């Protein structure tokens, strides 16, 4: 299983890195439009995104629009290696310059920004399938967070369409702790999981 996951991660990363910057920018705009049309957060919901790294689909344009609509916006705070592996979320003012460096080259809102519990979030990933399963970098941070919050949290995978792992190829290699996402949004549209 560890080998299958590592192979699928490497493939996801390679595919993502092959996307030219201009195409990546267009994909982010397309995915943003899909969310606003097909799966916008309910009015007033606290929304969370992520600060993109390693070629991830950029949720920035979407977060800016949601902030304009009055949604409080949050970003994840990755725990240091010597702390429990629990992801937390802090309110973000939308200013990239306000972010502080975190573990694994992440960036997060600074200490002192309020801790919030998002109702709705965009989840980064390396690979996904039509069952709503996702593959992350292997920290298990989102798995734990989604398990702790249960179905009250709307968790939308946010990724390039080329990151899909077809079910015909076996889909995402998954284990009992992997939690399916509510839905997946890509530059090609929304995918509502088929529960197989
Ligand atoms: N943009 C973004 N923010 C995020 C996540 C994410 O996937 N994307 N996370 C999602 O959980 C959390 C951070 N978790 C991460 C875990 C590992 C690596 C990473 O780059 N790992 C390297 C190994 C680094 C090492 O061992 O020193 C790797 O995969 O090669 C990055 C983020 C919270 N913030
Ligand atoms: N709910 C959970 N409770 C305890 N441990 C968990 C839970 N979910 C995942 N883990 C542990 O986290 C580790 C990484 O899991 P996995 O390979 O599925 O990560 P991932 O989904 O790729 O990463 P991430 O969620 O950070 O993006 C595994 O060792 C797994 O046992």
Automatic annotation (TrEMBL):
Enzyme class: ligase
Gene Ontology BP terms: folic acid-containing compound biosynthetic process; tetrahydrofolate interconversion
Catalytic activity of the protein: (6S)-5-formyl-5,6,7,8-tetrahydrofolate + ATP = (6R)-5,10-methenyltetrahydrofolate + ADP + phosphate
List of residues binding ATP: 5-9, 134-142
Keyword Kinase (UniProt): no
Cofactor or coenzyme needed: Mg(2+)
UniProt: substrate binding residues: 56
Entry keywords, A to Z: ATP-binding, Ligase, Magnesium, Metal-binding, Nucleotide-binding
The protein's Enzyme Commission number: 6.3.3.2
Entry GO MF terms: 5-formyltetrahydrofolate cyclo-ligase activity; ATP binding; metal ion binding
Pfam families in UniProt: 5-FTHF_cyc-lig
Keyword Nucleotide-binding (UniProt): yes
InterPro entries tied to this protein: FTHF_cligase (IPR002698), FTHF_cligase-like_sf (IPR024185), NagB/RpiA_transferase-like (IPR037171)
Family classification: Belongs to the 5-formyltetrahydrofolate cyclo-ligase family.
PANTHER family linked: 5-FORMYLTETRAHYDROFOLATE CYCLO-LIGASE (PTHR23407:SF1), ATPASE INHIBITOR/5-FORMYLTETRAHYDROFOLATE CYCLO-LIGASE (PTHR23407)
Descriptive protein name: 5-formyltetrahydrofolate cyclo-ligase
Organism: Roseospira marina
Taxon lineage: Bacteria, Pseudomonadati, Pseudomonadota, Alphaproteobacteria, Rhodospirillales
